[in-house]
Structure formats: C-alpha cells, structure tokens
Amino acid sequence: MKQGDLVVRKSYGGDVLFRVEAVRTHNAILKGTDYRLLADAPIPDLTVVSDPESTRAVQQVRIKVNNSLKRMHSERERHTVETEDQVRLAMQESQPFFEVPGKVLHLDGDGNYLRKSMQLYNTMNVPSHGLHVHESQMADVLYRLLPQLQPDIVVITGHDGVLKNRAQSDLYSLSSYKNSQHFVNAVRVAREYEKNRDGLIVIAGACQSHFEALLQAGSNFASSPGRILIHALDPVYIAIKASYTSIKDTINLADVIHGTISGIDGVGGIETLGRFRVGLPKPKITSSSTVTS
Known about the structure:
Oligomer: single chain
CATH topology of the largest domain: Rossmann fold
Number of domains: 2
Low-confidence stretches: none
Distance between the termini: 28 Å
Mean pLDDT: 87
Order of helices and strands: EEEEEHEEHEHEHEHEHHEEE
Number of strands: 14
CATH architecture of the largest domain: 3-Layer(aba) Sandwich
Strand order of the largest sheet: 12-11-10-9-7-8-14
Structural class: alpha/beta
C-alpha cells in the first residue's frame, strides 16, 4: 500500500472510498474521495480498490450526485424563466436585462474538491474565487482577502471528523473534532468583517463538523447536525442556491437542504436573504472564476 492508493475500510463494510494521503508504520491517513472526511485506519483494515466505479460506495454516491445536479440545473432554468417573466411584467414589454448573481469566495482544505467545486460554479455561471488553504490558515487568509474581494458568500470547508479517542460526553467540545475549531475561527473573522448575516452569507463545515459551534460563531449554514458525512459538493450547492436567490426573498431552508446530497442530518441553517439582483438595461459584462493554490 502506498500514497495515492484508493482504499475502503473492512470494518465499516467498505461504505466510503478513500485516497491514501500518507502511510505510517501501522496505519494510514485517509481522505474521502467523495465525502469531506479525514480519517486514519490500521493498514490491515484497508483493502486497495482497483476499480472504484464498481464499488457499492461509489455507485450509491454517483446516483445521489446525479440527482442533485439535475435538480440544480432544473432550478437554474426555472429561475431564468421566472426572472424574464417578472421583468417583462414590470416593464410592460420585452426588455433585455442582466443578472448579478452573488459572488462566492470559496476556501477549501482539499485541492481536488476545490477543482470540482470551481467547475460547478463555472457551469452554473456563479462568479467565484477559490483558494486551496489548509484549515488552520483559513482565518488568516479570510482576514486578508475579505476586504480585497468583497464577496457576497463565503464557503469555509475542507476535511473534518469526530476524534475516535474521546468520551461520548465530549461530543459538544470543539477539542473532539479534527478541524471544527479552525472553521469556527474563520467564521468569526468573517463576522468581524460583516456582522449582518444577510450582508455576507457564510457556509461552513465538513464531515461531522460541530454544527452548533459554527452557527453560534456566525454561520448562516453549517454541517453537520447529525455528525454524519457530507458530500464534497454540498457546500457548493448551498452557495449556488444563495447566489441565485433574489435579495427580496429568503432562501427556502427546506428546499435547499432537501437539494443537498447529505440531507437534513448533513447540513442546516437559518433564514437568510438571497444575493441575486436584476439590472436594466443590459450592458456588456464579463465574470470569471479563479482558483489559487
């Protein structure tokens, strides 16, 4: 077994596909390929997977991802039609307009997930700026970048997990999590920059993250109420939903949570106004998405 191998854990019934990040003497450090989970496991408990697409873990995830993406595209098409109808009704004529979706700043502790996330932002025409940043550095990076980029939406995510060697009563202690404290620190920086939760939408957390602490720190949406695994694209789905919900409307909580791959145990949040605007007349505008390592 070596770094980069795809593996599953025998003791968990091969429920999650991992990539080996590092091999120690007796165990391996693992990162989920689809879920934002950081874990370690004894080497004898791991099985190398040569054909990941044939595994039950990957097949089940693919079905959920495809359903979520179909829903996302359908919502985007419906939103465009509704916007056109609203402008036509207000102007009493067909008038070219332009859309100003909310701008996203996405910090990700995993470079592979960041690339997938940025591809989806691009596909959905969401203006976005992405950076691969270690979870421990996110607060410092946000402090520097928020005044420069002035985003409407911030995504703070990467890898997390509940530590195995802890007392059950410590589930609500930040010290029982691998990276939740780092996420909380970053959320606090974002809230120092903009206290109004409708002025800056913050989406934070990863697999099994401390949901309550993230909300208390100032997140609008966070993971994970049920301390479960969340899919890599769940924070992205919420960000896109926020980007294309009108500033006149609140983001439909039940709708956005139902649209994620992980569901109500994976993500939760509070009532929040969207960040989408319509403008007239239509000028020539450009938008771009960038990724920084």
